[in-house]
């Protein structure tokens, strides 16, 4: 019986579990310290100090906040649907955590004996489809939270979230399709490798730059970040879909929002900015494999700073203008850009096209 066990398969499965454990915990730690970073950066932008009481420079503030939220009383309204009210935060958080399974953050490092260390959990041919399909599930948690709370402000927040998701998923998907047309694949690792082999990220191409801007704006709306944070507009809806949430269940929505910010930024880096580019093969596979994740994380950090900058600078849009921007501006522009990209690839002289 023991002789029939394929230990290579066992090793691969165990390694995937270890990577998944590390990535989930890294995302949760990143969420905690993104809140600290946001409060610090916004404080400086608004001529304030930000958190500075708990630990040096306030570095222990996220830990104190986590303990406080874990110990707070969990209140469920008597008029709420208890089961759906309880499950809804999980429906938002779990999809956000599992998207990163297909995100490649660095090139493979050869280890000898036809083995290599890979900076991802799974390299699947439909990686982009997996990421977008799982990302679209997160809105169910928000909509169900608004409905199950049996509160008019929560319901309005949930309805706004669903309308916003539908409106901005379309231009975001069409912008990403422009990259897929140029790459000829939906394998995320292969998309990054093509950009590195040609030393040319897609954002440097004319249609790629337009697609990147559309994807970036749509991604901010998908994450419900300012100035598109209409589902939880405090001035209008109290807190929107999570008005009736408290304690740890409330914090799960908070976690989902920040982890989704990381996911959207990671997909933008993979699709448009070359992933770990310029850590190319000319540096050697081992050095590129070590520098690649560092470059990738630095690009993610720039996106996070951009999110914070927008929140500190721009006022919240009115809801009708939010809808108009998605349907009347971004969607036609993304569709036109996709058609131009397809024509460019189709009629470019054979052998000259640098990608697929």
Task: Produce the secondary structure layout.
Layout (H helix, E strand, L loop, with lengths): L6 H39 L15 H11 L10 H17 L10 E4 L2 E3 L9 H9 L2 H11 L3 H32 L4 H10 L8 H17 L11 H4 L9 H26 L12 H29 L5 H29 L9
Antiparallel strand pairs: 1-2
Give an overview of the whole structure.
The chain is mainly α. Helix 1 crosses helix 10, helix 2 packs across helix 10 and helix 3 packs antiparallel against helix 5. It contains 12 helices and 2 strands, in the order αααββααααααααα. The model has no long low-confidence stretch (mean pLDDT 88). The chain has one domain. Strand 1 and strand 2 form a beta hairpin. A two-stranded antiparallel sheet has the order 1-2. The N and C termini lie far apart (47 Å).
Number of E-type strands: 2
The H-and-E topology, N to C, reads as HHHEEHHHHHHHHH
Unreliable residue stretches? none
Which class of secondary structure composition applies to the elements? mainly alpha
**Strand order in the sheet with the most strands:** 1-2
- Strand percent estimate: under 5%
**Helix coverage percent:** 55-70%
- Major sheet summary line: 2 strands, antiparallel
Overall mean confidence score, pLDDT? 88
Shape, per Cα inertia axes: globular
Number of domains: 1
The radius of gyration over CA amounts to 22 Å
State the end-to-end distance: 47 Å
- Oligomeric category: single chain
Total number of helical segments?
12
């Amino acid at each position: 019986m023991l002789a029939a066990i394929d230990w290579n398969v066992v090793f691969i499965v165990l390694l995937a579990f270890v990577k998944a454990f590390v990535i989930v915990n890294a995302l949760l730690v990143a969420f905690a310290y993104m809140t600290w970073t946001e409060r610090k950066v916004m404080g400086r932008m608004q001529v304030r100090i930000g958190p500075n009481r708990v630990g040096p420079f306030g570095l222990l503030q996220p830990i104190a906040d986590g303990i406080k939220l874990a110990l707070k009383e969990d209140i469920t309204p008597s008029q709420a649907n208890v089961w759906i009210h309880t499950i809804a935060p999980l429906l938002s958080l779990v999809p956000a955590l599992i998207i990163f399974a297909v995100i490649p953050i660095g090139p493979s490092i050869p280890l000898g004996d036809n083995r290599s260390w890979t900076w991802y959990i799974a390299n699947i041919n439909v990686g982009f489809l997996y990421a977008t399909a799982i990302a679209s599930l997160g809105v169910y948690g928000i909509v169900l939270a608004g409905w199950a709370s049996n509160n008019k402000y929560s319901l309005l927040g949930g309805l706004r979230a669903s309308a916003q998701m539908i409106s901005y998923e379309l231009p975001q998907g069409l912008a990403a399709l422009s990259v897929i047309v140029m790459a000829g694949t939906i394998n995320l690792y292969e998309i990054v490798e093509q950009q590195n082999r040609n030393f040319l990220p897609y954002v440097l191409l004319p249609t790629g730059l337009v697609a990147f801007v559309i994807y970036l704006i749509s991604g901010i709306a998908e994450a419900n970040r300012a100035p598109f944070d209409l589902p939880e507009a405090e001035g209008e809806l109290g807190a929107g879909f999570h008005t009736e949430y408290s304690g740890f269940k409330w914090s799960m929505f908070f976690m989902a929002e920040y982890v989704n910010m990381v996911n959207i930024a990671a997909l933008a880096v993979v699709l448009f900015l070359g992933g770990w580019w310029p850590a190319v093969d000319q540096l050697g596979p081992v050095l590129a494999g070590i520098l690649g994740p560092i470059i990738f994380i630095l690009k993610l950090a720039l996106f996070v700073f951009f999110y914070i900058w927008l929140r500190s600078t721009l006022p919240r849009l009115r809801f009708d203008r939010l809808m108009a921007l998605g349907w009347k501006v971004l969607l036609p522009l993304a569709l036109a850009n996709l058609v131009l990209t397809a024509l460019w690839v189709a009629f470019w002289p054979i052998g000259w096209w640098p990608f697929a």
